[in-house]
TrEMBL record:
Pfam family, one: Bac_globin
Disordered as annotated region, ranges: 135-158
Recorded GO MF terms: heme binding; metal ion binding; oxygen binding
Record-listed heme binding positions: 76
Keywords annotated in UniProt: Heme, Iron, Metal-binding, Transport
InterPro entries: Globin-like_sf, Globin/Proto, Hemoglobin_trunc
Keyword Metal-binding: yes
Name recorded for this polypeptide: Hemoglobin
Domain of life: Bacteria
Length: 158
C-alpha cells in the first residue's frame, strides 16, 4: 500500500546516508530503555570505535565495499553470559532499526537494509542462544530470500 509519509524521502545512495542512519540509530539505542544498558553498562561500548565499524558493516552489506572485517557472531556470543540476549531483545532491536530507517529513508535500498537486518538478527539470535532453527540457517534460504538477494544489485557508491 502506498504510504504518503514516505513519498518525499530519499533512498540510501552511499556512505553519507549510511553514516546518518547509523548515527541516528545508535543515538536512539543509547537512550533506549531496553537496549541502552547493554551497550552503556554491559559492553561499555567505545562509541568512537564502534560507530565507524558499523558504517563499514552496513556499507559492506549494501554496496559490497566498506571493508568490514569484524566478527558479529563472536561479539554477540560474548554478551550471552552477561545479559539476556533473547528473542524479545532482538525483536525490539529490529523494531528500532526499522523505524529509524523509515523515519529517514524510503526506496529499494531502505527496504533491502531492513530485510538484511531481519535475516541477520534471526541468524545471530539462534546461533548465540543455541536455538537451532532450520529457518534461520543461511544454508536454507527461502525462495523469497533467494529471489530478493539475487535481484539486489548494489549501486555505484557515491
Ligand atoms: C539484541 C540485539 C542486539 C544487541 C543488544 C547488540 C549489541 C551489540 C554490542 C554490545 C556490540 C559490541 C559493541 C562494542 O564493541 O562494545 C555489538 C556489535 C555489533 N553488532 Fe550488535 N547487537 C544486537 C543486534 C545486532 C544485529 C541484528 C546486527 C546485524 C544486523 C548487529 C550487528 C553488529 C555488528 C556488525 C557488531 C560489530 C561486531 C564486531 O565487533 O566485529 N547487532 N552489538
Amino acid at each position: 500500500m502506498f504510504d504518503s509519509s514516505q513519498a518525499n524521502k530519499p533512498d540510501i545512495t552511499g556512505r553519507a546516508e549510511i553514516e546518518t542512519l547509523v548515527n541516528t540509530f545508535y543515538d536512539r539505542v543509547r537512550d533506549d530503555a531496553v537496549l541502552g544498558f547493554i551497550f552503556n553498562e554491559v559492553a561499555q561500548t567505545n562509541w568512537t570505535t564502534h560507530l565507524p565499524k558499523m558504517y563499514a558493516f552496513w556499507e559492506t552489506v549494501l554496496f559490497r565495499t566498506g571493508g568490514f572485517t569484524g566478527n558479529p557472531m563472536a561479539a554477540h556470543a560474548k554478551l550471552v553470559p552477561l545479559t539476556d540476549m533473547g528473542r524479545d531483545k532482538f525483536d525490539h532491536w529490529l523494531q528500532l532499526f526499522r523505524s529509524t530507517v523509515d523515519d529517514l529513508f524510503a526506496g529499494e535500498r531502505a527496504e533491502h537494509i531492513k530485510n538484511c537486518a531481519a535475516d541477520m538478527a534471526n541468524v545471530i539470535y539462534s546461533r548465540i542462544n543455541q536455538v537451532p532453527d532450520p529457518r534461520f540457517d543461511p544454508a536454507n534460504l527461502t525462495p523469497e530470500q533467494r529471489e530478493r538477494y539475487a535481484r539486489y544489485k548494489p549501486p555505484p557508491v557515491v
